[in-house]
Amino acid sequence: MIVRVEKQAGTRTMVLYPDQENRLKADEIEIANHYAGASLTEVMSVKGRYLLSPRIPFTPGYEFLGTVVRIGSGTKKFSLGDLVCGIVPHGGGYSSQVIIKEKFAVLAGSMEKSIQVSASIINYLTALELLSPLVKRGIGGNVLIRGVAGGVGLAVLELGKIHNIRVYGTCSMQKKVTVESRGGIWLDRNVSLQQQASKFPAKGFDVVMDAFGVVSFRDSIKFLKRGGTFCAYGFFGDLPPFMDAIIGVGYLLVRCLASFRKLHIVSVPAMVELSTKKYRKNLQEIVSYIQNSTIEIGPIEVFPISQVFEAHRKIEASEVVGKVVLDCRNQHSNI
Predict the structure, then answer these.
(1) For residues 40 and 234, is the Cβ–Cβ distance under 8 A?
(2) DSSP-assigned states of every residue in 133-151
(3) What tens digit of pLDDT does each residue of 102-137 get?
(4) Close Cβ partners of 172 (under 8 Å, ≥ 6 residues apart)
(5) Considering only CA atoms, which of 99, 106, 74, 40 is closest in space to residue 319?
(6) Are the CB atoms for 165 and 134 separated by under 8 Å?
C-alpha cells in the first residue's frame, strides 16, 4: 500500500493505492518497508504548510525502516535481508515499498528494537542538530524548547541527559508528568514565558529552540542569553510557510546580529543531501544509543498505514505524546 497526496475538488487530500513495481537505478536499493514515522512535519506537508513540501502528487513520509529486498548493480554497502533505516529526503516513506539511494540508509541493528529505531530517526537527528552548539563545547548548559512533549522535544530531553544539559520546555498540563519524568523542567504553554521567567537561568538560556514561526520567535528570543544560539526549525507558524520562513529568518538575523547572538537553522531533510556523511554518522550514533539502551524511546503509538487519516488527526490535535509510527507492512509479512 502507498499513500499519495493529490488535489481533489480543489482540496489536498491523501489517497491510498496498491503498491507498484518500480525500476531500480544502479545506486539504489529497494526496501520492504516495515515502519514509517509520522509527525507534524508530514501533517503540514499534506496541507502544503511545510516549507519543504514536495509538489503534488507526492508520497509523504521522511522516515523508513525495513528489509533490503533488491539492490542496484552499483551498490556496495548492503546485502539482501539487511535491516536498514534512514531518511527519504523528498518524502516517500508512507509506502510498503521504498526505493532510495543506498547512501541514505544505515544498518538499523536488531529486529527486536526496530520500532524504537523507527520512532527515533528524524526526531533524534533534529535534536542532535539543535543541541550541537552545546554538545560541541562539552560543558553542559541550559536550553528552552517550545513544544517539549512532542517527538523532537522528548529527544532533546533524552540527549540532554547524556550531555549534562538542563532542558526547560513548554507543553500542556496533561503532559507535565511525561516531561518531568524525563528530567525536564515543565513550563505551561498556556501561560506567557514572561510570567514564568522566575524559573529561568539568571543570564538567560544558552540555546533556544522554536519551530512555531515568527510570532513565537519574537517571544522566545527575549530569553536567549548574550552569545547564545537561537535554533529555528519547522516553521509551523500561522503564516504561509515560505512567508513565515522569510520573515522569521529575517527577523532573527537582525535580532541576533544586533544583540551578539547566533542563529542556527535546522532542517534534517536538507542536511541529508547537503551533508550526507554527517547525517550517516549521526544516525549510526542514534541507532547505537538505542541498541545499547542508552536512551529511552517513547511513548510510541502505532497505526496501520490504512489508518493514516486518524494518525494525522491525532498529531494535529496534539493528542499524542511522543511519536506516531505507521505500520507499512503488507498483511502477509512478518517482523
Answers:
(1) yes
(2) HHHTTTS-EEEEEESTTBH
(3) 999 999 999 999 999 999 999 999 999 999 999 888
(4) 149, 188, 189, 190, 318
(5) 40
(6) yes
Residue 255 · residue 261 · CB < 8 Å: yes
Element (H, E) at 241: helix 241-258
Residue 22: half-sphere exposure toward Cβ, Cα within 13 Å? 21
Q: For residues 325 and 300, is the Cβ–Cβ distance under 8 A?
A: yes
| Mean residue pLDDT across the chain | 91
pTM (two decimals): 0.90
Residue whose C-alpha cell is 523508513: 64
Q: How far apart are CA 140 and CA 250, in angstroms?
A: 29
| Rounded distance between C-alpha atoms, residue 251 and residue 2, angstroms | 40
DSSP 54: P
The predicted-structure confidence for 294-320, as pLDDT tens digits, reads as follows 998 878 999 999 999 999 999 999 888
Number of C-alpha atoms within 13 angstroms, CB side, residue 26?
2
